């Protein structure tokens, strides 16, 4: 890719940082070969430290995507996510210190979710200051305990064929079976999360400050239009 003049690549490994030795080996190889190419990867909370992140930065890492899921420890524990809110705070602080951009993904409507926990997660998203964030609605997938719980009460859902994939993660599917929130309330919470995260004056100004060229302005305008359209109209 480098020889073909690609400017950036995305390592689609679900957890690129799972094996820290492998990451260090890859980074050192990129540095030794003097490959000046930016790259993006996925990571998991608990697999990062500041020393590793600094090495990744030198090797060309520009952006890291992480599934934060929730800002409420009880919700994470109930879903057996195996991550902690405190480690999440530390990981995003380290990424900023290393000079690496970050994307955080949050999932609303997980087991035990309430209006109060949704609010706490939105506030947590603002607190940890990822470069960008996305929010989705928890969907019970076939083969998971959550799916089995839903099927026990709704046998017609047993093959998952009733799911509309065009609204996957933007619309609730039987979330009232394991949360106190109805489908419509979760959809409203999703739009609220996008508005509260992206429409903050401080966040908007931080992105305006990044504009260095007409290309930057064009990309920012397109991204902003898409976010606004979804947050306001739900499209």
Tally of distinct domains: 2
Could you list the spans in which at least 5 consecutive residues all have pLDDT below 50? none
Strand content: 5-15%
Structural class: alpha/beta
- Strand order in the sheet with the most strands: 1-2-3-4-5
Q: Which quaternary structure do these chains form? A: single chain
CATH class label of the largest domain: Alpha Beta
Q: What is the C-alpha radius of gyration, as a whole number of Å?
A: 19 Å
Helix count, per DSSP? 9
SSE string, helices as H and strands as E: EHEHEHHEHEHHHH
How is the biggest beta sheet arranged? Answer: 5 strands, parallel
Helix content: 40-55%
- The CATH architecture category of the largest domain equals Alpha-Beta Barrel
- Mean pLDDT, nearest integer? 88
Instruction: Give the CATH superfamily of the largest domain.
Output: Aldolase class I
Number of strands: 5
Features:
235 residues; alpha/beta; TIM Barrel; five-stranded parallel sheet; 14% strand; globular
Can you tell me about this structure?
By secondary structure, the protein is an alpha/beta fold. It has two domains: 8-198, Aldolase class I (TIM Barrel); 202-235, no CATH class. The protein has nine helices and five strands. It has helices spanning 20-32, 50-58, 73-78, 85-98, 115-128, 145-153, 183-198, 201-208, 214-233, and strands at 8-11, 38-43, 61-69, 101-108, 132-137. It has a five-stranded parallel β-sheet. Strand 2, helix 2 and strand 3 form a beta-alpha-beta unit. Helix 1 (20-32) packs parallel to helix 2. The radius of gyration is 19 Å and the shape is globular. The two termini are 35 Å apart. The model has no long low-confidence stretch (mean pLDDT 88).
């Amino acid at each position: 890719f480098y020889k073909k003049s690609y400017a950036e690549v995305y390592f689609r490994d679900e957890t690129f940082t799972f094996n820290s030795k492998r990451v260090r080996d890859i980074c050192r190889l990129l540095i030794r070969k003097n490959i000046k190419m930016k790259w993006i990867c996925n990571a998991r909370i608990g697999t990062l430290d500041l020393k590793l992140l600094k090495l990744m930065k030198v090797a060309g890492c520009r952006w890291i995507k992480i599934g934060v899921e929730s800002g409420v420890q009880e919700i994470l524990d109930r879903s057996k996510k195996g991550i902690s809110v405190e480690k999440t705070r530390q990981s995003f602080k380290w990424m900023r210190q290393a000079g690496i951009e970050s994307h955080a993904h949050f999932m609303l409507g997980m087991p035990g979710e309430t209006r109060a926990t949704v609010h706490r997660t939105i506030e947590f998203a603002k607190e940890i200051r990822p470069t960008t964030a996305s929010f989705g609605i928890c969907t019970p997938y076939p083969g998971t305990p959550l799916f089995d719980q839903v099927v026990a009460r709704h046998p017609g859902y047993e093959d998952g064929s009733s799911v509309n994939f065009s609204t996957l993660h933007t619309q609730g599917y039987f979330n009232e079976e394991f949360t106190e929130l109805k489908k419509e309330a979760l959809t409203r919470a999703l739009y609220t999360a996008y508005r509260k995260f992206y429409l903050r004056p401080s966040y908007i100004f931080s992105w305006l400050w990044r504009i260095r060229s007409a290309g930057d302005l064009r990309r920012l305008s397109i991204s902003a239009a898409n976010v606004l359209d979804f947050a306001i109209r739900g499209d």
